[in-house]
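Friendly challenge for the regulars: who can give me the structure tokens for this chain first? No prize, just bragging rights.
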Amino acid sequence: MRTRLVIVRKSRFVVELLSEDGLERFDAAIGANPDGRDKAAEGDCRTPEGVFAVSSIEDSSEWEHEGREAYGPHFLRLSCPPWQGIGIHGTDEPALLGTRSSLGCVRMRNDDLEKLVGSVEVGTLVIIAP
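First reply, four minutes later:
Bragging rights claimed.
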């Protein structure tokens, strides 16, 4: 595996994939809380900040949220105690990329997520920066 690091830059609404091949940037959406700060409480619609790791890569193609298959093809679950259920996943609303619109996860365009999934593995470090 050549990829060494994934960086989410909340203020820029991007996911960066850093590898020996260079840097790739992908549009993203983050937590809907308008203040954009670090996650402080369950349900606050903020994306947590810090250094985390991919704990699993799951097939989320049939997962539903409010009756819609909203998670795209994959869910990269992050180990980010004390928070559970935080990850990087696809979206059925690509027009919302570049905005604060999620419940706290990081959303990406589904085909960009496929590229990311092909380059990471369980244990890959993920930095979520303000």
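The chain has a mean pLDDT of 94. The longest helix spans residues 110-117. Your move, everyone else.
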